[in-house]
Structures are given as structure tokens and as C-alpha cells.
User: Fold this.
Amino acid sequence: MAIVASSRRTAALLLAALSLPAAAVTCHAQTSATGRYLGFDRNTFPGEAALPALRQHFSFVGYWLNTPPGAHSNSWAGHRAILVQAGFGFLVLWNGRLDAQIKHAGVSPEILGRADAAHAITAAQREHFPPGTLLFLDQEEGGRLLPEQAAYLLAWTEAVAATSFRPGVYTSGQPVTDGPGPGETITTATDISTRVRTQHLHPVALWVAQDSCGPSTGCTLIPPPFSANGTPDALVWQYAQSPRRPEITRTCARTYNAHGNCTVPALPALFLDLNLSPSADPSRGR
Assistant:
């Protein structure tokens, strides 16, 4: 996943390509012991053969319920039981709509949001995720939400909240210019939190993407303090993306591979996004 930019907005899991596998395992154990857990996400299922090596480093994994951004099919479908058996927790994801798709859907953003929420719930049930599982809507576009985006997103979260599942949003925690005054900035995560609070809506968990170096330390298994993510009420922090965004990762570029991707030492061909959370199973999907 990657937060993308638009005309009024610009738009985060960790591994050191230079670290030795043994050191990475030690780092994972230390991280777990201090109540911070590493996870990864990617658009394509990594394959069963890769799971033991990934589990050495990671406690949880992003799991798509529908086709991920830019993909033609969903290779994660049907793999929940295998991941549970391997010991992974989950970040359960639904790929939301881009602004252009919302505008040209032929129905109101509210109707579209509720319909997509119903599809997400059906998919979660089909994948045997238990009641109470937290479902994250993937909000790819960053900055202050446009009116139709906000209407779609909040209709989705409210519809999920009305079921046995709980709503969350994957969104940008990267500050962007907002308003005419010097230094006026906003993050999409802050915008969403403000709307939920002022409209007295159901709580929405936040998975924030903030891969700027710093606060991120780049593609490394030695994560920064979770509190450095910049969003006080975040549940998950995505702090490294594949490929890296050159304009905000220059100072930690050497932690990525030569092509700008984040990889595990034992699996150099597997490109990952890295995440950090106080929970080993942020979606409570086990």
C-alpha cells in the first residue's frame, strides 16, 4: 500500500536489509517483550514457503478481503487458517474507493459506502474472521478529505460498526499543507478523528502511514518508539513502504535495498511494508 497524492493533498512496517537474520530474530523477541510488535503487509500473498522465515521477525500480517490497489485479483483469499496455524495475528483490510471512483459511481457516497461495507462484512465472514474483528478501510489518498470522500468513509465505518465487526481506517499520518497560513498542516488521520468526534460517531481505529525519516528509522527491525508516529490515538504505525518515497526517505535510504524496496534478509526478493503496534493481533482476527 502507498498513500498517493492529488492536486490538493500529498500523502508505513520495518526491516533492515543490512541486518543479519539472527540479529533480526533477537530484535523481534526484544520488541515483543517490551509490548511493541512488528508486522508486515503487501499486496500479494508471500506463499506458504516464506511464512516460517517471516514469522521469525513478524507477529502480524496485513490480510486483504478484496482485490488490493493496482492488482487484478486477491491472492490472500482462503489463507487465513494457514496464517493462524503459523502463529500470525492480523490487520484485516478492505480496499476502499478513490475520489474519482466515488464521484463517478452513479450513487451517493453514503449509499456506496454502506454497500462496500456490506461486501467487506460478507468477505470477512467468508474468510472465517470472528465477531469483533477490526476491519480497516484502505483510504489511499492523503490530506484533508473532500466532502464525498468523508461521506463515503464515514458511511462505511458506521455500517461496519452496526454489525458484530469493528471499523478502522488505514490512512496517512504524514502532515501536509492545509490552509493559506504559513505552517498550517493536517494529516488525514487527524481529519478523520476530528470528524468522528465532532459528529459523535462510533470509534474508528487508526492505522497510520508515516514513513518519513524521521520519525521513521527506515527499513530496519529496530523500530522507533511507537509514540513517535505523530498520531496519539493510532493503533498501528506503518513506518516503511516498498518502494520507498525518495522525497521523504533520503536520510534513511541506505536501509532499503538498491531498488528502494524493503526486504527480509532471508527473503531478498520479497518486498514488504513494515508496521509497529502495541498489539500482536491488532485486528483481533485470530
Observations:
- The longest strand covers residues 89-95.
- Confidence is low (pLDDT under 50) at residues 5-30.
